[in-house]
């Protein structure tokens, strides 16, 4: 049986798969669609991250395909319904990168609230903006608002609480009397209440028709003055132009975006030159440790599934 890996994966996990399967490890395939379709033609399994589009065209080109492994948790690049219709199993790495994302959220929260870590060039040039940068805020006593309360949101809540933060969460999928609220010490609330009360708003929702453009200009205007926004979920959830406007106007104190409506971000986008804005290239869930966990889990699940198909 043959496995094609179209994006980067931890090498020990690749080698573990090679003990039982033929593995084509070609992370450049994500940027070469014709070559990807050609390789998929002979594949029993495909392992991807978030950029490879597993759509009807790819499924039609891959008649032998039985499984897709996702090195991460979001599935918006995978047509799950089409996979189900074609009898192709989908295996995301649920839980394996939660800590990495949660640490990213908490770290950027601390940076943005303190507001003093954009000054290296000034200080190195001989300036001394001590008075201006002495107005930063501590995380303890602030309110973290989580939009979405799945595994990553819950891990983020635990870390935020350890810093002395109060945590609210909005998740329409969870009933207000679900046991997880009492177990976690997190208060469920409406989206409107969360935006009005939170000093930090962090997004933890998939990209669906219901969440696309969820954080638009109207919702940004409902956030507390001086609040900060962190998005490690999906770029399409936030109206980037409206966010840039809010940051330039000084209504929000800052934002950190790890995901974008178009990736890579195009030169000259609305986000260029925006103050108090941290931009990273969709790496919130990717650390050395999480890559090992994610890769090992997907290798185990895809490999186990293919082995079962042999019997």
What attributes characterize this protein structure?
single chain; 311 residues; alpha/beta; Rossmann fold; 2 domains; five-stranded parallel beta sheet; globular
CATH fold annotation of the largest domain? Rossmann fold
- The ordered H/E elements are EHEHEHEHEHHEHEHEHEHEHEEH
What's the total count of β strands? 12
CATH C-level label of the largest domain: Alpha Beta
If you had to describe this structure to a student in words, what would you say it looks like?
The chain has 311 residues and is α/β, with parallel strands linked by helices. It has 2 domains: 2-96 and 288-310, Rossmann fold; 98-279, Rossmann fold (3-Layer(aba) Sandwich), CATH 3.40.50. 36% of the residues lie in helices and 15% in strands. It has helices spanning 11-18, 33-40, 56-61, 80-85, 98-114, 120-124, 151-162, 179-184, 191-197, 217-222, 240-248, 288-310; strands at residues 2-5, 22-25, 45-48, 67-70, 89-92, 143-147, 166-170, 187-188, 200-203, 228-231, 254-257, 277-279. The strands form 2 sheets. It has a 7-stranded parallel sheet with strand order 8-7-6-9-10-11-12, sandwiched between helices. The protein has a 5-stranded parallel sheet with strand order 2-1-3-4-5. The mean pLDDT is 96.
